Amino acid sequence: MDRLKIGISACFFHPDGERKAAPSKTLLWIEQSTAHWVMSEGALPVMIPSLNGKTFRGEVSAADYAQALDGLVMHGGADVWPGTYGEKPLRPEWHGDRVRDEYEVALVKAFSAAGKPVFGICRGLQLINVAYGGTLYQDITTQKPGALVHRDAAMYDLNFHDVDILADSRLAQLLPRGRHKINSVHHQGIKDVAPGFVVEALSPEDGVVEAIRHTGGPWIAAVQWHPEFHRPELGVIDDTPLLRATSCRPRAKPASHEHTPHPRPGDGRTDHHPARRRRGFGRAQGAGRARGAALLGRSPAGGTQALHRGLPRRGRARPGAARARDDARDRQADQDVAQRAQWPAAAHRLLPGRSGEGDRRRNPVRRRRHARADRARAARRGGQHLGLELPLVRRLQRDPAGAAHRQRRPLQASEYAAMTGLEITRLLHEAGVPREVMACLVGAGEVGTALLAQAVDGVFFTGSHATGQRIAEAVGKRFVKLQLELGGKDPTYVCEDADPKAAAESLADGAMYNTGQSCCSVERIYVHEKIHDAFVAHFVQTVRGYKMGDPMSEDTYIGAITRAPQLEVLDRQVADAQRKGAADLLLGGRKGQGPGNWYEPTVLVNVNHEMEVMREESFGPVVGIQKVRDDHEALELMNDTRYGLTAGVFTPDEERARSILAHVRAGTVYWNCCDRVSPRLPWSGVGDSGVGLTLSTYGIQTFTRPKAWHLRKA
């Protein structure tokens, strides 16, 4: 098992002639409760020794520990030396430990520079604050008249008071909002909050800062209380989620290769972690049913409208979306797609009960007053996986329908889009969807495996064909409802009567939007020989005009590749095509310069189906353009694939387009457009592009199980 390794800063016993044990030595130690707290989540605590002193030799540095470990916890102990924040001790006993201060400041700076999470406890909060330019009260009782007794030597960790977790704080995403009971064993406290930090919690009676968080950079947070003094039987808040938030796997930002922490399985922002609490989801069944009925049980239409009223519209969603910037900065955001589709505003109009369509279709038989096909019953529990590609859109394909049917739905967010999954879940909870109904799981394959082992009524997945196969094999023997949205190698045919410029501009967008990282992006283009050259010229000119750069910039069109290994896939496909005859590389074909996962938009001509680039999914800004003689050849090539997600035709002749598209093996077809979805139309795939469907009234049936009632009055 690959366990996280969490560094713990050491406490110091300096040489002391009156000490019985090793009076001339410097002793380093950690509190057992802190180590056990870290171990309680399966992580390995590692005490980090001092990195200077008379006995220190070698070149090991704080940066070396930051690279080797997964995070840092700084626990309590001696006072912070007032000189660290530019003051002199008001009393001799408040002198603090200058040596430990310098040691811990070096650790904080090293771990934050490495992109590793840093979490401070009690003294750790105070040290972090002064390390970044804040100040402290040397003694709260002396310098803040009227303050609570924050330290009672006789009571020690049985000294309690209330704390308010601020409503808009990140801490409120980890712990229940509002007022809570905490322990208090400190006499120093924050006076001036360091620049770049925000207050997350306060003592309501005296305004003493109880929690802080760094903004706009590395994950650094701290609390003034001791979460390792775990005393839930005394009504103290359960601080386990704080540890889970600290236990993050750092990942590199695709656009810069800077490291940011990413939630790990069991992050406190998730509601259930099946690998740890296999019964947790089942225990929520009764509560979820009751709360779901209260929210949505009045009638299908009423319940749906209640959900819709809480869902964020485009204008109202921005504050929540801004808090998901960790993912948005990493790759081209799917904001434009969400706006075009107008998901939240349209979702309730598609649900049964909004119009008579759904009821008529599900009640086809009314004969002899005793035979009736009654309304479909929702599958009670469904597990789903949120892919890394357009996570907002993918989530909204499923969630409104599932929630409206009162399903309990654990979501496993892709480990590459975890923050977006968590943020969408938070917005749904704020909209009124009960936490028991909608939960978010964080992690990679092991979390998905654990989720599949649950007693779910359905499994819904968006991702690769290989993973989809494994999921189908895992649940096949259980006969649960299965919906898989997998990959594609989507073709488009441009007929000789099409406008080459208009078609080129549309298909360039379809091929390069979101840097080609869309399952329904255009990856194969077949152009009639009569307009081939004109089309290619316009296509290349259009793609040349796309700016590559910072995905948060308004004028950027081409962003970074989300996953670094995909760069090798693109390189391999381009090299294979060139070896097999696609010598005319009209654009791109190489990785971008500098840090980050950059790949230049690439256009290949003289391609054929012996080349991998025309057979296997690219999932990047690479497209092949092949010349064809007629409609028959184009149709044969379009169907020469194991995938079948979308396909399109460009021609002014509607009858011709319908004739061609009727014979294309694809779940969605386009006439004079591409790479788009509609909430009113079903979304499905053929062949290796998946099974089942989402969207529209047909897609809603994915989340239901019909039940026939034969009734006759006695």
From TrEMBL:
Keyword Oxidoreductase: yes
GO molecular function: hydrolase activity; oxidoreductase activity, acting on the aldehyde or oxo group of donors, NAD or NADP as acceptor
Pfam family, one: Aldedh
Segments of skewed composition (Basic residues): 363-383
Sequence ranges of Low complexity compositional bias: 282-303
Catalytic residue positions: E485
Name of the protein in question: Aldehyde dehydrogenase family protein
Organism name: Ramlibacter montanisoli
